[in-house]
Every structure is written in C-alpha cells, then in structure tokens.
Specification:
Blueprint (H helix, E strand, L loop, with lengths): L1 H31 L8 H39 L9
Helix pairs in contact: 1-2
C-alpha cells in the first residue's frame, strides 16, 4: 500500500512539475522561433501542446522514480538483520 501511495504522489508531483517545465519550454519555443501571436496562436500552442506533454512526461517520470525508490526501500527493510548486542 505504501508503494502504491508513493507512486500516486510521484505521479501528481511529477505532473505538476512537468506542466511547469512544459510551459517554460513552450514560452522559450515561442520566443526562439518567433511564433506568431495572431489570434492567440502562441498561447494556444504553449497551453495545449507543451503543457500537456510536459505533464504527461513528468507524471510518468515521477511515478517511476517514486516507485523505484519505494521498492528499494521495501527491499532494504525486509533484508535488514536486527542489530547484535555487543558482549562485554
């Protein structure tokens, strides 16, 4: 259950971060390639192309990253041996 919740958290955080990076990349694209702003074309390009792509890529990446971290933590917790007491 912990792993599934961490994957969902990674999905949400990754989607938010990816959307923000997608907006930044879209704004950079518009400035670098001098995309026309006729009737809001450049804004439409950024918010309907770059933002969803960034959110999708970021969500998948975040879910995978958090899932791998959660799985490794679960493996380590199972394999650990109890600490031995030193004999005096």
């Amino acid at each position: 259950m912990k792993i599934a919740l961490l994957v969902l958290l990674g999905l949400v955080l990754g989607a938010l971060g990816g959307a923000a990076l997608g907006i930044g990349a879209g704004l950079a694209w518009v400035e670098i390639f001098k995309t026309t702003s006729f009737e809001g074309y450049s804004g439409t390009l950024v918010f309907f192309t770059f933002m969803p792509l960034g959110a999708a890529i970021g969500g998948l990446g975040g879910a995978l990253l958090f899932g791998v971290i959660a799985l490794r933590d679960a493996e380590i917790a199972i394999e650990q041996q109890p600490a031995r007491r030193r004999e005096r």
